[in-house]
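new request in #modeling-help
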Amino acid sequence: MKRHLRFSLLHLVLAAGAVSMILPFLWMLSTSLKPESQIFRFPPVWLPDRWQWSNYVEAMQAAAFARYFINTLIYAGAVTITNLLFCSMAAYAFARLRFRGRNLLFILVLGTMMIPGQVTMVPVFIMLKHWPFAGGNDALGLGGHGLLNSYTGLVLPVAVSAFGIFLLRQFFMTLPSELEDAARIDGCSEAGIYWRIILPLSKPALATLSIFTFTAAWNEFLWPLLIMSKDSMKTLQVGLQVFQTQYTTRWDLLMAGTVLVTLPVLIVFLVGQRYFTRGIALTGMKG
Amino acid sequence: MRTAATGMARRQSRTAWVFLTPGLTLFFLFVLIPVVAAFYLSFCRYDIIHSPVWVGNQNYARIAEDLGHRGVFYLSLRNTAQYALGTIPIGMALALLLALLLNTGIRGIAIYRTAYYLPVVTSLVAVSLVWMWIYDPSYGLLNYLLQLLSRGISTITGREFPISPQTWLGDPGQAMPAIIAMSIWRGLGYNMVIYLAGLQGIPDHLHEAAIIDGATPWQRFWAITWPLLKPTTAFILVVSVIGASQVFAQVYVMTNGGPNNATTVIVHQIFRNAFSFMKMGYASAMAFVLFGIIFVMSLINLRLLRGGEVEYV
């Protein structure tokens, strides 16, 4: 009985906390569906008299959210694919192949994680701007805008990550080597072992890295803010921020835009939840 | 046999370099060269239009001078420290408390975990916008809640208890605490899930044995849970300090450093100097100061928490 009471009390505390976590999202949703007249009402109302779905239409007309959505999808998708490929290749070499200087090289790669992105962002910006033969540039990288405002310029500098290499290497190390040895005796090449044995066995780790990379790219702000200044090339986060500076008091439209930006990643989270939390356990504990 | 072995070694080594080429090329191009270039630029005057001009240690001297007379960069350092001290201890304590509560074998752990983790997956720009609306001085939810609180207290005590509406983000004294509160809310679920994983790694028999010996929950926490969670705490602390040093998006969206530089932070200053004022050299010098801070803080954290690692069998 006493135990029962204690659990009830615990539920009360945890539920109160959970409500305060979710309340801002409900407030966002409620505002996004209010007619303008009900936004500026004090005390505020939670349920609008009539649900103003046209806010979403108006928000999408006021800013090019459809275009931003496509840009973000291309960016996040491309970064995820390149990271999966390049990180797993490097991780395979570090975990399973023997070559001179392996440990030193691995430590160097890990060491790059120490460098904050703010140190490299200015030179990378300059490099992209002066990329030869791109965006109207000549051989010396002059005359045009280079790789700025291009998908290539946005993706290439973040196409591989030391974190991803580390995560996959740790996972590859735990795989038993018997299958590999058997495949080698059967004459399978190293590339074949990577593609036919290691990758299929590593689906959970690859799923974790995919979800991490995708959501991080989807939510990234500073990097696309630097590279994509042209409106037609903006990602959702940058577009939303600019939208906010233009419609400072139209909270109905702003919240509708925020819902549009937030919804896809929330759906990914709710569907692939176990990969999020498993991934955290995986990276957190080994870190 | 021997030739077969060396043949395999050679084959492995060749494959390894082929597999490493894409990743290493990208690191070379977009990390190694830029770090060296940034270091060089930090000794130059560079406005991206004209070629860089070597100015010696002038940029670093300017930073020192700024710190001396409490200029804008000094403010950004102070505000970043305020942000770190405001978010990290409270955020970690709350996360640990929640993880402990969830680890009691209570039902519905998955639902709670989802709810607490929801803000983590949402973008900083989006949650910043939502919280700007919550912090709105005239129509915001928070001032309404304050009004409800004032009414509640008045009813209970039978005496007037007025709480006037606050300006929040528009007030130099309240803007940073408001950003801190939002950031704690957003990061709580992440730290909680890591603590939860750490707690689940502590074997049950330790607690069972302690219960038999008559230890109170308080004693068990300090004798078993806390020491065994030390690696988890170290990890969260290091990640949090690095993250707090690099805080940017919520500041840029919610206040853009204002009012009156009350919320400007290091990365905000780097961004502004590099891309608004076109002082790329000065910005690079600031970036290296940030690099140094992160490096030293990480070393201190690891040193502090490495000592006395515990293992119970």
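bot summary: Chain A has a mean pLDDT of 88.
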